Amino acid sequence: MSFPAALRRRSGFLKVHILILTILALASHAQHKKRQSNGEFIRGCYMVNWAQYRPYNGSYFAKDYESGLCSHVFLAFATISDKYEVMTREWNDIGAFYSVMRNFKQQDPNLKVLLSLGGWSFDTKKFRKISSSAEIRGIFVASLLRFLRAHGFDGFDLDWEYPENASERLGLVELCKNIAERFQWERKRGKHPELLFTAAVPASPDKVEKGYDVPALARCLDFVNVMTYDFHGSWELRTGVNSPFAVRHSHSPRDAALSTVGAAKLWFTKGMPKEKIVIGLPTYGRGWTLLDTADPSVGSEAIGASTALNYTRADGVIAFYECCELLKQGARSFRDKETGAAILVQGNQWFSYDDRESFKRKLQWIREERYGGAFVWSLDTDDFKGIFCPQFNGLKYPLVRTMDSMLRGEYEVEDNSSDFSKEPLYNCPDCSSVPARAAVSTAEPGEVVITEAAPVGVLPETFDCPYDGLFLNPHNENSFYNCSGGNALKMYCENGTSFSIKSGMCSQPSESTSSLHLTIKPSANASPNCTDDVYATSSIHAQNVSSTLASLLLPVYELSPAELESFSTEETKSYHEDTIAPNDFVATSEVEMTATYSFNSNEWITENDYELATQKPS
Question: Which of 108, 302, 388, 389 is deepest in the core (most CB within 10 A)?
Answer without folding.
Answer: 389
